[in-house]
Amino acid sequence: MEILLQFLATKAVAALIGVVALLGVKKADVVLSKPEVKILYDSIHINTSLKNSFPEELEKIILSGTPVTIRLKISYSTKDTTLNQEISHRIKYDLASKTFLFVSFCGESITSPIKLKDIDSAKKSMNKFNVGVGLNPAPTGKEITVIMRAIIDPIKIGAIGNKDFELMAFWDYHTPTLKFVIKQ
Question: In the chain, which residues have pLDDT < 50?
Answer without folding.
Answer: 4-5, 15, 19-23
